[in-house]
Design goal:
single chain, 254 residues, alpha/beta, TIM Barrel, 10 helices, globular
């Protein structure tokens, strides 16, 4: 979900690995440390408690070795776009560290909901009634339901996942009634070439209207702005793991 961004080594603290490469754990740890420092500074400047903002490290297409390096540096919350990749990559990692938390952040097909419910601690991409139905059925079958976020297409972009703005309130109300406290909040991805702040403010206003406390917004290029606007989760991939490989091949290799 997160687009590639230009990473400035002078602000991140380390030069990223070349495409598809796994750089050393020290370089990744340095980048993680730099991101956390910037998050803390952004929260402090916004008169917020830095502890109220959680970093979701987006590890799509990156191998288990990269995730392990991030875990060794103290990162335990990760985001994956694809259920199939998450199913191959994360069960062994969770066995190594039961405190690990997995967020599914990509568009979710209804035929993948049972696997998603079994794997995830949070699903951030609930965006339509049919998916709510499928998640409900899967939860009953699996005997568990992850935390849920409604994804709002704040820019009403036809190529993106997310419920359109005009339908968002109705879907949020229906999911709140259906899932209760398991519906934790909202997620958005602003249009790439627009100022993200109005979109972050719109999402914050929607969450306030519905009494929801979790706001997943902000990625590598704009997480500091998102924190200033109230984000409680920021999804950062490229600025931690380096450029994303073109395919998920060999992501499970140690």
């Amino acid at each position: 979900m997160e687009p590639s961004v230009v990473i400035r080594p002078e602000t991140i603290g380390s030069t990223p690995a070349p495409d598809g490469a796994v750089d050393g754990p020290h370089a990744l740890a340095d980048r993680l440390r730099a991101i956390r420092t910037r998050m803390d500074q952004a929260a402090t400047q916004a008169s917020r408690n830095p502890a109220d903002v959680t970093l979701v490290a987006v590890s799509k297409f990156h191998p288990q070795a990269s995730v392990r390096a991030a875990m060794a540096a103290g990162q335990l919350v990760f985001g994956e776009n694809r259920v199939q990749e998450a199913a191959a990559k994360f069960p062994p990692l969770r066995a190594e560290s039961p405190a690990l938390r997995l967020h599914l952040i990509g568009g979710l097909q209804t035929n993948k909901t049972r696997d998603a419910v079994r794997l995830a601690d949070m699903i951030e991409s609930l965006d339509r009634p049919a998916l709510a139905d499928a998640l409900d059925r899967a939860a009953q079958t699996e005997g568990r339901l992850p935390d849920l976020l409604v994804e709002v297409n704040t820019g009403d972009e036809p190529q993106k996942f997310g419920v359109p703005r005009e339908q968002a309130d109705a879907l949020i109300r229906a999911c709140r009634q259906r899932f209760g406290e398991k519906l934790r909040g909202l997620m958005c991805i602003p249009p790439a070439h627009e100022d993200p702040r109005p979109h972050f403010r719109l999402l914050r206003a929607m969450a306030h209207t519905h009494g929801l406390s979790v706001l997943s917004m902000g990625m590598s290029a704009d997480f500091e702005q998102a924190i200033a606007e109230g984000a409680t989760l920021v999804r950062v991939g490229s600025a931690i793991f380096g450029p994303r490989p073109a395919t998920p091949e060999s992501t499970v290799a140690p």
